[in-house]
Specification:
The complex is a heterotrimer.
Chain A: E1 3-12, E2 22-31, H1 36-47, E3 66-69, E4 72-75, E5 87-91, E6 98-100, E7 103-104, H2 107-115, H3 137-147, H4 154-158, H5 160-164, H6 171-181, H7 189-196, H8 210-214, H9 221-241
Parallel strand pairs in A: 1-5
Antiparallel strand pairs in A: 1-2, 3-4, 3-5, 6-7
Chain B: E1 3-6, E2 9-12, H1 24-55, H2 57-68, H3 70-92, H4 94-97, E3 101-102, E4 105-106, H5 109-131
Antiparallel strand pairs in B: 1-2, 3-4
Helix pairs in contact in B: 1-2, 1-3
Chain C: H1 7-35, H2 45-53, H3 55-82, H4 88-111
Classes of the chains: A alpha+beta, B mainly alpha, C mainly alpha.
The complex binds FE2/S2 (inorganic) cluster.
Chain lengths: 247, 132, 114
């Protein structure tokens, strides 16, 4: 098993003592099959127990280990050491306030995510005795890719519009709204439109496309947002130019 | 970078006018957006051309004289480049904005992009044959 | 939050994006030839005048120029914001006014060609 001496530079910040974050470098001999998260765990266990960061699953499922690795939003558990040179810079996800070291304040994202009603809103109440909903494979295909989102927030870090206009509801939240809108069991689109068709909603997006490029689960939020724009535009023309057509 | 503290959290501010220098993908995006300056100016040129046609042959000849100037040539070259960048960047993202579902599968993105390129080339050849 | 009115312009932006992507490169190529004195027949007074004298010709020219104007006006508005210019309302008013004037001017010019 090959080993490599790697300089891990971590942006550190202690809210009790620091005025601003500073870089701290650790030298770690990394195994070639390690991911950046392994290196951080090594530091925490052997070199510096004060280093703070989030992680849980170590397999790109829980979405908690998102951080900037050499300036790119990445899951630390999916960023393989062998793809990097001998010097790796690790920083907390940009566009989010830093709470401590690599831990960011994600309140804003959570609130936005909840605001788009990311759950099934059935068209009408259905008694249990009516049995289960039925969906064909083609119904499932319409929204399946959007269910893969793990809320890791890499897309918010990649999106320059979210950085510039913090009110923007953002890629993951609008994609999850699109996911439920596309579901044949759902009837809640007009509720969600109030939020996502507002100017802080999808109209803040100008299709930079960075969100889809960094998404570790290939959800393609940028595509979802353009589809939402198209649908909202058709809505608008319907409502204003053809008021006699019922929604 | 202007940075500030807020309820013990540290906020890294995004530089308003230079954020796009941070990543190559942002620069590619800005290049795409800037094509609108050229296409916009070019369209205004077309508006003037149509107006001159309406005013008669002499007015149109005057318009052509301006087009012949070095600045006119330079403008047309840069607009051609900008227009090509606009076209390719536009077609390449069509599968994301307009996915086509065929039964239990999505039509491959390559087919959608390819179809746009074919239509683009066909229209261009048509206009060239008709126009030259 | 209320629904935004951006779709009005965005619809034109998207349609114009497609129209310009398909047509503008070949058009600029033809005007470049003209500028270099290899005048293609399309860009002579006679040809343009004949084309604009038919209703179908007027319609095609009008639709294309209008879409192209609104496409670029809208994208320039976004671009201004991207370069850090924050007076979005003012920028929007100016750009959309230019697009509107261009649209009207094109309409009148075309109508006066018989
Ligand atoms: S630790 Fe769960 S996604 Fe990385």
């Amino acid at each position: 098993m090959s080993e490599r001496q790697i300089q891990i530079e971590v942006l550190r910040y202690n809210p009790e003592t620091d005025i601003e974050p500073t870089i701290q470098a650790y030298t770690v001999s990394c195994l070639n099959e390690w991911v950046v998260l392994d290196a951080l765990n090594y530091i925490k266990d052997n070199l510096d127990a004060t280093l703070s960061y989030r992680w849980s699953c170590h397999m790109a499922v829980c979405g908690s280990c998102g951080m900037m690795i050499n300036g790119e939003p990445k899951l630390a558990c999916k960023a393989f050491i062998h793809e990097y040179s001998d010097r790796i810079r690790v920083e907390p996800l940009v566009h989010f306030p830093i709470k401590r070291d690599l831990i960011t304040d994600i309140e804003d994202f959570i609130a936005k995510f909840a605001s788009v009603k990311p759950y099934l809103i059935p068209k009408e109440k259905r008694p249990i005795s009516d049995g289960e909903y039925q969906q064909k494979p083609e119904d499932l295909l319409k929204f399946k890719q959007y269910t893969l989102c793990i809320n890791c927030m890499l897309c918010y870090s990649a999106c320059p519009k979210y950085g510039l206009v913090p009110e923007f509801i953002g890629p993951a939240a609008i994609s999850i709204a699109h996911r439920y809108n596309q579901d044949s069991r759902d009837g809640g689109r007009h509720h969600r439109q109030e939020i996502i068709a507002s100017s802080e909603g999808v109209w803040e997006c100008s299709f930079v496309g960075a969100c889809s490029e960094v998404c570790p689960k290939h959800v393609d939020p940028a595509g979802a947002l353009q589809q939402v724009k198209l649908a909202s535009t058709i809505d608008w023309y319907r409502e204003h130019l053809m008021p006699w057509v019922k929604k | 970078m202007g940075k500030k503290m807020n309820k013990n959290s540290y906020i890294r501010e995004v530089p308003r006018a230079s954020w796009f220098l941070k990543q190559p993908r942002y620069i590619r995006y800005m290049a795409r957006e800037v094509t609108s300056l050229f296409i916009g100016a070019y369209t205004l040129m077309l508006v003037i051309a149509i107006k001159r046609v309406a005013e008669g042959p002499d007015a149109f000849q005057n318009f052509l004289e301006i087009l012949y100037s070095p600045l006119g040539i330079l403008f047309n070259i840069s607009t051609l480049l900008a227009a090509l960048y606009h076209s390719t960047s536009w077609f390449n993202v069509t599968p994301q904005a307009m996915p086509i579902q065929w039964g239990e599968e999505f039509v491959s993105g390559r087919i959608i992009v390819g179809a746009h390129y074919i239509i683009w080339i066909a229209i261009s050849i048509l206009i060239l044959v008709f126009g030259v | 939050m209320s629904k935004s009115n951006k779709p009005i312009v965005w619809g034109l932006f998207a349609a114009g994006g497609m129209a310009t992507a398909l047509v503008t490169p070949v058009l600029t190529f033809l005007t470049l030839l003209t500028a270099l004195h290899f005048t293609p027949s399309l860009f002579t007074y006679e040809c343009l005048h004949t084309m604009a004298s038919y209703w179908i010709g007027k319609l095609i020219i009008f639709v294309f120029v209008t879409l192209s104007l609104w496409h670029s006006a809208h994208r320039m508005r976004i671009t201004a914001h991207d370069f850090g210019i924050r007076s979005d309302l003012l920028i929007a008013i100016i750009l959309y006014c230019v697009a509107a004037i261009g649209t009207i001017l094109t309409g009148f010019s075309l109508l006066s060609i018989h």
